[in-house]
């Protein structure tokens, strides 16, 4: 088993990359549930308002499913990472699929993100040739796939200078259709035709001598198209303590800003409220941060013991925090106090963590 698959198994099948924050309007939470279901929960009533089945089993996107900008189509990795199922949300049906494996070649897919037009998929892959007496790993990281003609347009390895020590890096196609953002320890801008790095948002430099870097972190959250938030841990030479801070990255402007919030806390996942005013971190401890005042509002220690969820979603009105991703439960917290309110039973083990989408997209 490769290093990437081992890391994938360790992180969990649920994935860690939440969807864009939706506009402030009634929403539903889309949840992938074992063995092959998608369920839709009304954010206000917390009741099931829809359900559908996938073709090839459980969702296994490493970073959570991606979608078109209008929320109308989602792309789920299934079939033990060998298929991408295209789901039309309004009709609640699988309308297309992508499979790249053959008897002579196995292609495992970690995630699939569409371009701005929703016509081309960028798929992170690991490909292996299947010889009679051996496996032959291929030097391929990204496949560019045309959804209209159903053919591979291109496949290529990422430049060796891009470091992804644990998982394949996240991809985000730029609106211009000519470049691709690769989100790793830094943000790299790749020319789609030449596959070369043409620019970089450097997040690895210390903010001042003796301090650590305000990097992108392991679980970036896309609060709106092109605006990423994440947290970091950094040594403070004055206080002689590890600090917890937040980084904001603007992909279009290719700018980054970061600031310390408090001494270190045990959090791994990160989210931002739809209005962009508050950030939340969780898994282990739980924190709420005022992004405008740049200060810690609430800190709860040892909230999750023996359970490691993989997603946090703030309700559209900012009053509730939904936490889930491992096991059959979605935990609901008061977003102001971080006190637990209740638990929602998903109906089976969660395979794709809760992701918000506008209620109007789901239809009747």
Strand content: over 45%
Give a quick account of the main beta sheet: strands, pairing sense, barrel closure. Answer: 5 strands, antiparallel
Give the number of helices: 2
Overall residue-averaged pLDDT value = 84
- Helix and strand content put the structural class at mainly beta
Query: Remind me, CATH topology?
Result: Methylamine Dehydrogenase, Chain H
List segments where confidence is low: pLDDT < 50 over at least 5 consecutive residues: 1-23
Quaternary structure type: single chain
Total strands: the figure is 29
The domain count comes to: 1
User: What is the level-2 CATH architecture name?
Assistant: 7 Propeller
**Proportion of helical residues:** under 10%
CATH-level-4 superfamily name: YVTN repeat-like/Quinoprotein amine dehydrogenase
Shape: globular
N-end to C-end Cα span: 44 Å
Whole-number radius of gyration?
Answer: 20 Å
What is the CATH domain class?
A: Mainly Beta
Give the secondary structure arrangement, pairings included.
Layout: H1 3-11, E1 27-33, E2 37-42, E3 48-53, E4 66-67, E5 73-78, E6 83-88, E7 93-98, E8 105-114, E9 120-130, E10 135-137, E11 142-146, E12 151-156, E13 170-173, E14 179-183, E15 187-191, E16 197-201, E17 221-224, E18 227-236, E19 241-250, E20 255-263, E21 269-272, E22 278-282, E23 286-290, E24 295-300, E25 311-314, E26 320-324, E27 329-334, E28 340-345, E29 350-358, H2 359-362
């Amino acid at each position: 088993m490769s290093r990437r698959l081992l890391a994938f198994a360790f992180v969990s099948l649920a994935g860690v990359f939440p969807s864009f924050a939706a506009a402030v309007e009634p929403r539903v939470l889309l949840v992938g549930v074992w063995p092959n279901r998608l369920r839709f929960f009304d954010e206000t009533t917390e009741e099931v308002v829809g359900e559908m089945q996938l073709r090839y089993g459980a969702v296994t996107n490493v970073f959570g499913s991606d979608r078109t900008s209008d929320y109308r189509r989602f792309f789920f990795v299934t079939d033990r990472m060998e298929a991408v199922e295209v789901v039309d949300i309004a009709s609640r049906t699988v309308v297309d699929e992508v499979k790249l494996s053959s008897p002579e070649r196995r292609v495992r897919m970690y995630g699939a993100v569409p371009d701005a037009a929703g016509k081309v998929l960028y798929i992170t892959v690991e490909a292996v040739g299947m010889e009679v007496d051996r496996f032959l790993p291929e030097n391929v990281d990204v496949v560019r796939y045309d959804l209209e003609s159903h053919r591979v347009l291109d496949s290529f390895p990422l430049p060796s200078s891009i470091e992804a020590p644990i998982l394949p890096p996240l991809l985000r196609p730029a609106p211009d259709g000519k470049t691709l953002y690769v989100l790793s320890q830094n943000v790299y801008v790749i020319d789609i035709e030449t596959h070369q790095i043409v620019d970089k948002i450097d997040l690895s430099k210390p903010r001042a001598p003796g301090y650590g870097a305000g990097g992108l972190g392991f679980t970036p959250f896309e609060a709106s198209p092109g605006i990423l938030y994440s947290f970091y841990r950094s040594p403070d030479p004055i206080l002689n303590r590890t600090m917890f801070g937040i980084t904001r990255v603007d992909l279009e402007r290719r700018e980054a800003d970061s600031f310390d919030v408090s001494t270190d806390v045990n959090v791994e996942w990160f989210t931002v409220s739809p209005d962009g005013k508050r950030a939340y971190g969780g898994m282990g401890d739980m924190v709420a941060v005022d992004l405008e005042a740049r200060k810690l509002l609430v800190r709860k220690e040892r909230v999750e013991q023996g359970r490691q969820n993989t997603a946090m979603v703030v309700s559209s009105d900012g009053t509730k925090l939904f936490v889930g991703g491992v096991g059959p439960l979605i935990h609901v917290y008061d977003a102001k106090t971080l006190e637990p309110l209740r638990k929602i039973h998903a109906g089976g083990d969660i395979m794709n963590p809760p992701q918000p989408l506008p209620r109007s997209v789901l239809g009747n």
